């Protein structure tokens, strides 16, 4: 994604900006619209090959929330892919080369993942989480067969 964006940005800056055919927001929006289509296709592939083989739908049977949890997981995957794409575009728009932008994006994304749980657990202290609340209401059954 990043090297492709660099080539398109260079083309935009060399040809489209001086001719004023379209502006930077239109250029960025057109790139994002193509990424929305690709991210949707990839999120469907990710969801089908990850959610069902692991057996996540069986977790929601006691609470009768199979469809809600499936939809929530699909949207979570889709939003995660959209976040990584827009985050990559944000970094690439500010940095000249794809290699430096890739290094900066990887470092910042790792930093974000490392400290995300620490910051939000402090902010949400005392507030019940949605999934843990539903699991607490479920009747406890032992279906683990072991290995």
- What structural category do the secondary elements indicate? mainly alpha
| Tally of separate domains | 1
E-strand count: 0
**Average pLDDT metric:** 79
Q: Outline the biggest β-sheet.
A: none
The arrangement of helices and strands along the chain is HHHHHH
**What fraction strand?**
under 5%
Q: Helix share of residues?
A: over 70%
Radius of gyration: 21 Å
Shape: elongated
State the low-pLDDT regions, or none.
Answer: none
Work out the helix count: 6
How far the N terminus sits from the C terminus, by CA atoms, comes to: 42 Å
Give the structure's gist in a few sentences:
By secondary structure, the protein is mostly helical.
Based on the model shown, name its key terms.
147 residues; 79% helix; single chain; mainly alpha; 0% strand
Describe the 3D structure.
This protein has helices at 2-19, 24-54, 56-59, 66-94, 98-123, 130-137. The longest helix has 31 residues, at 24-54. The mean pLDDT is 79. Helices cover 79% and strands 0% of the residues. The protein has 147 residues and is an all-alpha fold. It has one domain.
């Amino acid at each position: 994604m990043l090297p492709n964006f660099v080539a398109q940005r260079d083309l935009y800056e060399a040809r489209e900006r001086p001719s004023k055919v379209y502006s930077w927001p239109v250029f960025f929006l057109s790139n994002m619209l193509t990424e929305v289509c690709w991210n949707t296709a990839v999120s469907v592939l990710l969801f089908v090959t990850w959610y069902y083989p692991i057996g996540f739908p069986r977790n929601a049977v006691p609470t009768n929330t199979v469809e809600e949890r499936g939809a929530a997981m699909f949207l979570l995957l889709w939003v995660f892919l959209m976040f990584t794409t827009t985050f990559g575009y944000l970094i690439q728009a500010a940095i000249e080369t794809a290699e430096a932008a890739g290094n900066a994006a990887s470092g910042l994304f790792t930093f974000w993942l490392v400290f995300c749980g620490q910051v939000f657990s402090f902010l949400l202290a005392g507030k019940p989480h949605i999934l843990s609340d539903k699991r607490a209401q479920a009747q406890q059954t032992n279906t683990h067969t072991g290995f």
